[in-house]
Structure formats: structure tokens, C-alpha cells
Amino acid sequence: MSSNAAVISVRDLVVGFGGVTVLDHASLDVFDGEVLGFVGGSGAGKSVLMRAIIGLLPRRHGTIEVFGTDPALADEDQRRSIEQRWGVLFQQGALFSSLTALQNVQFPMREYLKLSPRLMEEIAAAKLEMVGLGPDVHEKFPAELSGGMVKRVALARALALDPDIVFLDEPTSGLDPIGAAEFDQLIRTLQRTLGLSVFMVTHDLDSLHAVCDRIAVLSEGKVIATGSIETMLASEHPWLKSYFQGNRGRQIAHRVQH
Amino acid sequence: MSAAALDATADGTSVALTATGAWTVERAAELERIVDAAARRYQATPSIDIDLAKLERLDTFGAWLIERLKRTLIAAGATARIVGLSDSDRGLIEELRLVNQAPAQRHARPNPAVAALDGIGRAVAEMGWSLVLIAHLLGALTAAALRTIAHPTRLRLTSIVHHLERVGWRAVPIILLSTFVIGAILAQQGIFRFRSFGADIYVVDMVSVLVLREVGVLIVCVMVAGRSGSAYTAELGAMKMREEIDALRTMGLDPIEVLVLPRVIALVIAVPLLTFLGSMAALYGAGLVCWLYGGMAPEIFLERLREAIWLPTFEVGMIKAPFMALTIGLVACVEGFEVDGSAASLGQRTTASVVKSIFLVIALDGLFAMFFAGIGM
Ligand SMILES: Nc1ncnc2c1ncn2[C@@H]1O[C@H](COP(=O)(O)OP(=O)(O)OP(=O)(O)O)[C@@H](O)[C@H]1O
Ligand SMILES: [Mg+2]
User: Fold this and answer.
1) Which atom from ligand 1 is nearest to the alpha carbon of A218?
2) Which of A55, A171, B167, B363 yields a CA-CA distance of 20 to 30 A from B151?
3) Residue B119 burial (CB < 10 Å; 0-12/13-18/19+)?
4) What would the DSSP string read from start to end of A49-61?
5) pLDDT tens for each residue of B66-81
């Protein structure tokens, strides 16, 4: 599945706030066309790593390359073209509160593309429907949406420009199990058709099992392991053992074996 | 990557449309034109195959346009099929086959004249409504204050001191500076006009009465409304947006008691003090201008000041201050609680808070003027 080209490569990244070092020489690759599941305990720094890659947090040390260029060192044009090729779903959704759901999804298209209003509306409606939202939410404002709906609209917005990479910060948290499974399915479809690369922070063991080609584990500021779910399940590392083979993990392990 | 295109080969009553190139987001605008042209041209053709076998790349934009072409043709009475799907494209085409089936709900745009009238009506109703809300909050605040008096331990002293520092202490420099300048300007204008008929000395009467009765307290209130009223609204509004106020309520705490009471008490204490300081600074500015610009010795200024004003002049200004502070605090908190989910409403409410509190302070000043005239102060 994954060809050898890395679309994201992070080397020796150090990020901290004040006296606290959150990421301590973390290194990670995301390969073209793969879905990378990123796991780690709460507060381990998963969101911080994601925000550092997309250039929202300054780093103290290390290199980050996205499509072979460092977004922090790129000039205006390069940065814009990189930004057009990625979509980001933030942990809290981060929808624009003064735009309706449909306008939120249209927003990146308006900014980057010259499309007819009709096409923009149709595509935005299609994206919303693909993430499981019908026409009744089009005119709703974020404050009027449920938590799960906010997640879905945010995902539709992240996918608005058919990006090459999507960053998803806990996309399935706040979704019901059926919605989460549909979401996994959607990610699979998009990834197969569009050759999407996905960087997905998740705690959802079902998602890890269903869609992730590879899993990376963050602990104590470092990426301590990467590999398929089978590798993770077989690992003897104590943290991995308790994460993947705890009560919740065991059912997945069971499923993998059969 | 070759340009995207749709090539047609006709065969009797059927037409095969072959999509070539990359049907992706970068070319979406061009593709839409191609698709619309094809839809118009072949709408009378009974049977159409849309062949995707030669596609280089496909994404959601391209797939939707192909789906749209198919739907338009079918709606025109043709039999349209998508053929030559590669395995990788099938999933996406399948996804898009399912979407946008329900007719989009069009929202009729209202007539502009009606919308303008609607806006005016709403603004008027809103003004009335905000007075109701202010009265409501005043009631709730009084109840909270009475509860606090009954159980003094519930008074949030730390919070009051914190707000007192923000709205009082930190406002001192800017209040002193602006009132000083206002006093100086009033005196300069007075000297300039009064000198022509040799009444320089009455400048002191004019400035002192004006400053102590009206200008001092008004300037302070305008500054406080802009500085602290807006901050109150923005804080409470942001808390409302992030459900912090609901969280307080569910913990059995009264947001009025926890959030509003300390803020309003801080204002009611701070504004009279600031008014006093501001009035003194204004008189100082006036005295300085009289001396340096008008050539009036400080002793003469002070002498005249003593004759021009008596205690009630000063009291009139000071009595008004706490009421105006209460008005500013109430308006700011009412507007803060009225913020709904959006960032835009936070901005609107903050603006409304400042505008309304300044307007109400001026209106209140008018009422006080009538009242004091009535009792002869
Ligand atoms: N802006 C910030 N300022 C200071 N510390 C921060 C900031 N952002 C994150 N941190 C700290 O960095 C650490 C990692 O946070 P992060 O949000 O990346 O956790 P996470 O792995 O995403 O956890 P979760 O699974 O709960 O979302 C935490 O200890 C957090 O307190
Ligand atoms: Mg996080």
C-alpha cells in the first residue's frame, strides 16, 4: 500500500511550553497514501505534534517536512500551495461560529478556487452528505449543532478541497458507534480513490483496527513504536501491552486473530 | 497531466462520452463548463454512455460533475450510464451517486423593503426588550445582594478586590489624563470668549460648575463604559459561549451572585472615586491654563473657586456617579448574557453594551438634571 515516499517527515522534534518539554526528539514518517493512526495517553502531546507539523506551534529543535518542504521555512507561495493540499480537523471542531454549516464547508473553496456558486453549493452539500449530514443542517450555525455534528461538519470542511493529506484529531470521539464505523468506511473510500494520506490521532481501537495501515505510539515525548496493529498487539512493551491488551484492547486482538 | 476533456463519439441513436485527463479540483471550473455544454447538447439523445476508462485522475469535484451530468441527462429523458469504472474510482462514484438526492431547500430572499422595515421593527423591540432585561437583572441583583447581606460570608471579597483593581486602580492614569485635558480645554475656550467682554474671572465659575456637576462624571462614565463595560460583556459573553455559565449553574451557584454582583459592586465603588479624581484633575488643568494662558494667578483662581462653588455643586456630581456605575454594570452584564454561540454576536453585544450604556448614562443625567432643578440643588 504505502509507497516509500514520505509525505510528512518529522525528525528530532522538540516542542515545549515554558519549562515543560512536551515532545523530546520525536521522529515520525507518514507515507504517501497510508492511514497512520497516532496513539498515546491523554496529554502525551499528540495534538501538540499535529499542531507543530501544521506550523501552529514553534519548535525548539528538529526538522519537519511536508511534501518535501518545511512549512516554517517556505515562502508565502509555497506555504499557500501546501496549505491547499492539506485539510485539518481540530479536536474541538473549530468551526467558524458566524457561518452556517454549509458556508463553513464552502469557505476553503471560496478562498482558493474560482467556482460557480452552484457548483460550490453542490459540492459542499455532497461533502456534508458524505459525512452523514442531510440538508436539514445546511443552514444551522455551529452553536445549534450537536457535538457529533460539529465533528462531521469539521471533517467535511477538512475534506473540502480534496486534500492530499488530512490531519484528523480524534475524529470519531463524540460519534455514536454506527457513525464512527461509517466514518471509518468513508476514510477508507477516500483514501482508496483519492490516494489520500491520513494522519489520524485517535483513541478509538475500532478505527485503529479498521482503517489504519500503520500505528505510531507516542510516549514520554518520543515515538516509541510504529507498525501494523498486529505488531502492536504482539509487542512486549509494557505501555503497549496495557493499551492494546487492556479490557478494551482484548476484543480487538480477538478479532485480529480470527 | 493532460487537460481534462469529454470526447463524444456518436453511434446511431447513442452517444459515448469519454472523459479524459484529470478530473480534479484544480480544473473544476473548466470541467463544469464542459459538463454543462455536454448536458445541453445531448439532452435529446436517447442513450448515453459516460466512459471513465481513460481518466487519469478523479476526485470528488470531478466525480460529482460526472454524476451531475448523468442526472441532468436522465432528467431530460435519456438513459445515461457510467461505464468503464476502474476499481479505485468506483467507491467515489458510488458515494456521490447517493448524495444530493433530496431537492435543495431554497431559502427565498425577503423583499429588501420588507427586510429594512423588519430591521427597524426589531431594533425598536430590542431596545424595549433590553430595558426589560436590565430591570430583570436589577431585580436578581438586588435579591443576590440581600442574600449576601443576610449571609456576609457569601460575599466574594477576593473577586470584588480583583475587579476593583481592574476597573478602578488601573483606570486612574487614563482618567486623570483625559479629565485634565478636558478641564484645560474648557478653561482655554472660556478665557478666549470671556476676555472679549472683560469677564475673565467668570471662567472659573463656568469651569468649576461644569466640571463638578456634569463633565467630570460624564467623562469618567464614558471612559468606564468603553474600558470596563466592554470588558465585562466580552468576558461574560465568552463564558456563555463556552458553557461556563451553565457549568456554574449546575454546580448550584448563582451566576448573578458569582459573576455579576462582584463586578457591579466594583464599578459602584470605583466610579465615584474616579469621578472625584477626574474632577480634581480637570480643575487642576483649568487652573493651570488660567495661570499660564490667561495670566490669572493661582491665588486668584482659588479665591474665585471658593466663591463660585458650594458643597452641593460637588455633591450633585458625586451622587450621580454610583447610579451611573450601576447602569453601566447592568447593561454590560445583560449584554454579556445575551451572547449566543457565534463570535459575531460577541462583537455585536460588546458594541451594543458600550453604545447603550453611554446612551443610558446621558439619559440618566438628563433625569438627574430635572430632579436637582426640582429640589433646587
Ligand atoms: N498552549 C499550551 N501551553 C502550555 N501547555 C500546553 C499547551 N498545549 C498543550 N500543552 C501541554 O502539552 C501536553 C500535551 O498536550 P496535547 O494537547 O498534545 O495532549 P494530547 O496527547 O492531544 O491529549 P488528548 O488525547 O487528551 O487530546 C499537555 O501536558 C498540555 O498541558
Ligand atoms: Mg489532543
Assistant:
1) 21
2) B167
3) exposed
4) HHHHHTTSS--SE
5) 888 888 888 888 787 8
Most confident of A77-91, A135-149, A209-223, B257-271: B257-271
Between the CA of A48 and the centroid of ligand 2 the distance, in Å, is: 7
* Sheet bearing A214-219, strands edge to edge: A86-89, A165-169, A197-201, A35-40, A214-219, A222-227
Task: Indicate if B72 and B145 belong to the same structural domain.
Answer: no
Q: What is the pTM of this model?
A: 0.75
Report which protein residue has its CA nearest ligand 1's atom 1.
A17
Judgement on whether residues B358 and B210 belong to the same structural domain of the protein = yes
CATH number of the domain at B65, please.
Answer: 3.30.750.24
Complex ipTM value: 0.77
d(CA A188, CA A164): 14
**Do A162 and B25 make contact, defined as CB atoms within 8 angstroms?**
yes
- The answer as to whether B111 is a domain residue is no
B44, B77, B97: which is the final residue of a domain? B97
User: Both B145 and B93 in a single domain?
Assistant: no
Task: Note whether B166 and B239 are same-domain residues.
Answer: yes
Tell me, in angstroms, the distance from the centre of ligand 1 to residue A123's CA: 35
Check B32 against A122: CB less than 8 A apart. no
Please check whether residues B266 and B171 belong to one and the same domain.
yes
Q: What is the pLDDT of residues B104-160, one digit of tens each?
A: 556 677 788 999 999 999 988 988 888 899 999 999 999 999 999 998 888 889 999
